[in-house]
Write a structure and sequence with these properties.
With 291 residues, the protein is of the alpha/beta class. The chain contains twelve helices and eleven strands. The strands form two sheets. It has a nine-stranded mixed β-sheet, with helices on both faces. Strands 1-3 form a two-stranded parallel sheet.
């Protein structure tokens, strides 16, 4: 639970893209442990004249890094005070009114996957964000089984941070957590009309930046997985068709049904060799090219 190399690079890109860090809340008080060379690159991109090695030796936690990103008020929320969090709250439970809409940025860097009632915890984070503010996240996607309770998918992020819940997704990235690991945009499954799946052999992060654009009740309507919703919406056409001939049956099956059956019967391609992923250069990430 903390800011590693991938997290500091992503937050540098978020700063360059215009995310407001002025009032920052960490979900869990975040440790600070990026690689020194990566931190030096981030300082260079930010125009911060600091020695990366010295900064690492002086900062076990992340508050001073968030200060460099523009944070004037920095809070942390945790279930226990064992690491000196500023707000003690169990994220399994509904959010106290005092924390609602108070922060220009709410950042999760590896906490939510450890909360059993994940949906409640995610809702809490969304409610903490002020109108016009952002939620950012660096969490488990693939090959982290046993690290926490959950691994997180693009489908979940896109359905949760939707206009119906008052949010606009600015980016969803995947990053393989190995030296030289690539960075990839993960497109919206509803947009590409296919499941955004991944079969790989490396631990992989999902990274999110979403802006709060409206004050609405979070999850007033339960999100549904997009490919199933597409099938359900198309299924009305199946109830009163003309009696088809055998030779014309395939043509009469709606395309969403065909795609669904194909996805269920054929395994996804390995790695990122799919139309739902687009590679992003690391330098472009640091410059804030997040979409």
């Amino acid at each position: 639970m903390g800011l590693d190399t991938a997290a500091v690079m992503f937050l540098c890109g978020a700063k360059a893209a215009g995310v407001d860090f002025s009032s920052t809340a960490m979900i869990g008080r975040q440790w600070f442990f990026p690689e020194v060379g990566a931190l030096a690159r981030v300082f260079s991109a930010l125009g911060v004249p600091r020695d990366a090695d010295q900064f690492l030796r002086e900062n076990h936690y992340s508050e001073n890094f968030f200060s460099l990103l523009g944070a004037r008020q920095i809070s942390s929320v945790d279930v226990s005070d064992f690491e000196g969090a500023t707000h003690i709250h169990d994220m399994n439970l509904p959010l106290p009114d005092a924390l609602r809409g108070q922060f220009s940025l709410v950042h999760d860097s590896g906490t939510l996957e450890h909360v059993f009632h994940f949906v409640q915890a995610l809702k809490n984070c969304m409610e903490m964000v002020a109108l016009g503010g952002h939620f950012t996240q660096v969490s488990n996607a693939n090959n982290w089984m046993g690290h926490g309770f959950w691994q997180i998918s693009p489908e979940l992020i896109y359905r949760a941070f939707s206009p119906a819940n008052g949010f606009h997704i600015e980016t969803v990235l995947l990053h393989e957590v190995v030296p030289g690991g690539g960075w990839y945009f993960a497109l919206d499954p509803e947009q590409v009309r296919n499941r955004v799946q991944l079969c790989n052999s490396r631990p992989t992060y999902i990274l999110t930046a979403a802006k709060k654009v409206a004050q609405v009740e979070i999850f007033a309507s339960t999100p549904q997985q997009s490919d199933y919703a597409s099938v359900w919406n198309a299924s009305a056409d199946l109830f009163h068709p003309r009696p088809p001939s055998f030779s014309g049956l395939r043509k009469r099956i709606p395309r969403p049904i065909k795609r669904f059956l194909k996805d269920r019967l054929i395994l996804p391609k390995r790695g990122f060799r799919q139309k739902c992923y687009r590679r992003i250069d690391e330098d472009a990430l640091l410059r804030g090219k997040l979409s």
